[in-house]
Specification:
The structure holds two protein chains of two kinds.
Chain A: H1 2-34, H2 42-57, H3 76-98, H4 103-123, H5 125-128, H6 142-155, H7 161-168, H8 170-195, H9 197-207, H10 209-214, H11 219-245, H12 255-269, H13 274-294, H14 302-323
Chain B: H1 2-35, H2 42-63, H3 77-100, H4 110-132, E1 137-138, E2 147-149, E3 154-156, H5 158-180, H6 182-192, H7 194-199, H8 204-230, E4 232-233, H9 237-252, H10 257-274, H11 283-297
Antiparallel strand pairs in B: 1-4, 2-3
Helix pairs in contact in B: 1-5, 1-6, 1-8, 1-9, 1-10, 2-3, 2-4, 2-8, 2-9, 3-8, 5-6, 5-8, 6-8, 9-10, 9-11, 10-11
Classes of the chains: A mainly alpha, B mainly alpha.
């Protein structure tokens, strides 16, 4: 029974991570799936969201911190909003010089911004603590829930071990609900947006930019709006990550975890389909987690196995691109899709 | 004042790293103009070349090719042979990838191909990590002393002279190849107008193969030259080179191999000279800044390809 509860607790933890990836994947689906924008610097917007929320909601710097600013102890909702705004502003800065040009330029510029963000996080210790990262990021309502669960456990000394295990991790259930609420809310908002005339213009731009421009649409403005809105969603994902991990450092936002895996999730789940984007996040994160369990049975060293896992994810991407470019759940209503 | 006094020396370092960036940029430019997409795996192809040279070196020495240093260089004739073999080997790997992956995607859109190259980049990087580990691999443990160039007041190492000489000779060879050989002319024709080139009977698949061969062998040599200059390589090498190389290519004019050469020199020099004023940690960001400035001022690049 204890083992079963261990599995349940793990699954809750897994679902939180996958749900946060689902948010990232929805953000990318707006940019790439709906508009055809080639953003390969997701990690930059994700990291900026995480650090913004952590600095807005976190504690003031202590004697141990290298940073001298931040820590306003504001509510979680304010952090979420700030994360979205700062990430969106960053996207605006990157979109202005690149969105009038071919897709290649946006691609390389987003790589550039993600790398520059990572350099700043590493080197500007007065703001970010450098490589040490930000610690003790508060989780919303953690103290309240923890007080109740602790009180429940002390009040029931005869509690069976499995119940104690379950109750002691009750906070994660709450956080899972929170992530799920954000994910579902975003899903419905995006569904409305994509179906609206505004979303129809985005798809028109994706299919044929010149034709959209000929119909009198300001292609640049629509692309910019899509890029910024998608980046805001990625910023929200960053905030959700920061408050769940409670510790962030530049290493958390390497291109693999921050950018690449999100692309694989969206391509696997179904580009252009919001349900597919969320499904892909759970499927790919599941594959990723499952490969972690088999590593013990492989004859190679830990760094070798880590490298092989990444090669496997890369192969998965290429297989999907070549043999199933529409993903598990193809875009609804798309007969012909010129990628 | 002391800062300014360092600049001539930094210029020399900039020319050395810039000539390496130029070699790397040529491949990106050719792939873009002839195959029609940006190859985000190009940096990792460079790293693959650098690692293959390391792996081949002991085999070459075992055959009995001299390993004593060539003049005052830090390596011997065996290394030069390994360099050539590594470039050939890297071409082999990429041509296999072309057959298995890129050929299947020729009909797909450009962005699909670019996503595929991002996957290849990550794959190559981790294949390297699988075989050679995440820690740095050393090319040479010897310390090489720089000699003063008389009259200029700057120092340069023999290895750095070798790097620049290789880069210049390869650039000249590339020019002769593109201008005077039949396949070189076919490549330029395809870059100008792919469908017109096909109509006139140019074998497109042959052009594709040669584009890979030229771009990839130059990339492999560039990767090896980085190993010589830095004395070591890590699996992250390719990722670190990506931004400066694309900055060089965009600066020179996307799709123009000559522009990539000019851009490489400008980016290399700017990166090195910037270290006189800002922390070396921000060197990659300098390349990014140049890229953004260029996109704002003249997105077609310094040398615009005639259309």
């Amino acid at each position: 029974m204890e083992q079963l509860i261990g599995v349940v607790n793990y699954l809750v933890f897994f679902a939180i991570s996958a749900g946060i990836y689902g948010v990232l994947s929805l953000g990318l689906n707006l940019q790439w799936g709906a508009t055809g924008l080639f953003n390969i610097g997701i990690a930059g917007f994700y990291a900026v969201g995480a650090y913004t929320s952590a600095l807005v909601c976190g504690l003031p710097p202590t004697a141990w911190d290298g940073r001298m600013v931040g820590g306003f102890e504001l509510p979680f909702a304010v952090g979420l909003l700030a994360a979205a705004l700062v990430s969106g502003a960053l996207a605006l800065v990157i979109g202005l010089p690149t969105l009038r040009l071919r897709a290649d330029y946006l691609g390389i510029a987003t790589i550039g911004i993600a790398e520059t963000v990572r350099l700043i996080l590493k080197n500007e210790a007065w703001l970010t603590n450098g490589v040490w990262g930000l610690q003790q990021i508060p989780s919303p309502l953690y103290s309240v829930i923890h007080r109740h669960t602790a009180a429940y456990i002390t009040a029931h000394p005869g509690l069976p071990e499995w119940q104690r295990l379950l109750v002691s991790r009750a906070y994660n259930w709450f956080y899972l609900l929170l992530v799920a609420a954000v994910l579902i809310a975003l899903y419905f908002v995006l569904k409305r947006l994509i179906r609206s005339p505004w979303g129809r213009v985005l798809r028109a731009i994706r299919e044929d930019e010149d034709a959209a421009a000929m119909s009198g649409k300001n292609v640049f403005a629509f692309k910019l709006q899509s890029l910024v809105l998608g980046a805001m969603i990625m910023g929200i994902a960053g905030a959700l990550y920061a408050h769940s991990a409670r510790f962030i450092s530049p290493a958390s936002f390497e291109p693999l975890y921050g950018t690449f895996i999100v692309w694989v999730m969206l391509m696997v789940g179904g580009t252009g389909n919001n349900k597919g984007a969320m499904l892909g996040a759970f499927v790919v994160w599941g594959i990723w987690a499952a490969t972690d369990f088999v590593t013990d049975y492989l004859p190679w060293t830990a760094p070798q196995v880590a490298a092989l896992r990444i090669v496997a994810i890369g192969l998965l991407l290429e297989v999907v691109i070549v043999w199933r470019p529409k993903g598990i759940l193809p875009e609804i209503g798309a007969k012909r899709r010129a990628l | 004042m002391e800062t300014l006094a360092r600049i001539p020396q930094l210029l020399v370092y900039g020319l050395v790293s810039g000539s390496i960036l130029s070699l790397g940029g040529i491949g990106v430019s050719l792939t873009y103009s002839i195959l029609g997409f940006s190859n985000f795996a190009h940096g990792d192809v460079m790293a693959l070349g650098a690692y293959l040279a390391l792996a081949i070196l002991p085999l070459v020495s075992a055959v009995g090719i001299g390993s004593g240093p060539l003049g005052s260089l830090s390596f011997g004739p065996d290394f030069v042979v390994a360099l050539v073999l590594a470039a050939i080997g890297t071409c082999g790997v990429v041509l296999v990838l072309d057959r298995l992956l890129f050929r299947r995607l020729r009909g797909a859109g450009r962005i699909t191909l670019m996503i595929a190259t991002v996957g290849v980049a990550l794959g190559l990087r981790n294949v390297i990590q699988f075989f050679w580990g995440p820690q740095p691999r050393y090319y040479s443990a010897k310390i090489q002393y720089a000699t003063m160039i008389p009259g200029l007041g700057v120092k340069i190492k023999p290895d750095q002279v070798f790097i620049m000489a290789v880069a210049i000779s390869l650039a000249v060879l590339l020019h002769l190849f593109l201008r005077y050989t039949k396949i070189g002319k076919a490549m330029r024709a395809t870059a100008d107008n792919a469908s017109l080139a096909r109509v006139t009977g140019i074998n497109t698949e042959r052009v594709v193969a040669w584009t890979w061969i030229i771009g990839v062998s130059l990339a492999a040599v560039a990767g090896i030259l980085i190993g010589i200059e830095n004395k070591f390589v890590t699996p992250e090498l390719g990722w670190q080179m990506l931004l400066p190389i694309f900055a060089a290519v965009i600066l020179g004019g996307f799709g123009n191999p000559y522009g990539a050469i000019v851009g490489g020199i400008v980016v290399g020099v700017s990166e090195e000279v910037s270290t006189a004023f800002i922390s070396t940690a921000y060197k990659p960001a300098v390349a990014f800044l140049i890229l953004i400035l260029m996109l704002l001022v003249k997105p077609t690049g310094l040398l615009t390809r005639r259309s």
